[in-house]
Amino acid sequence: MWKNDQYFYSVGVLKAIAEWYDTIYEVMMLGDYQITNPFSLIDFKVDFDMALNEIGRGNWKGLESMSFRHYKHFSKMQRVIIAEILGIYDLEPYGFYEVRKLRHKAFKAMVDVLNGT
Known about the structure:
Number of domains: 1
Number of helices: 4
Structural class: mainly alpha
Strand order of the largest sheet: 1-2
Distance between the termini: 15 Å
């Protein structure tokens, strides 16, 4: 959402970025709205990557591997977002419980980083 000259992120926007992460330089769907402007897409990805890096101890530099086990040194909040990017929704085999709460908490922490709250 734009307010004055600043974009304010929401959990829904960050979830959309995670869903479209692997093709974000081409297109991203935000509800019924299709975003194709390359500059907007780059801004979304850079902001998302920065926020994901800030919410934990792992040094997120973007998707480096398609194997979820590659990210074991990242925090739980970071890993739940990385799992979302990779399309892994059953995280119990990896020792995650109450995943919906953790995922929401992680996205909310990213929103707080990006919106400065």
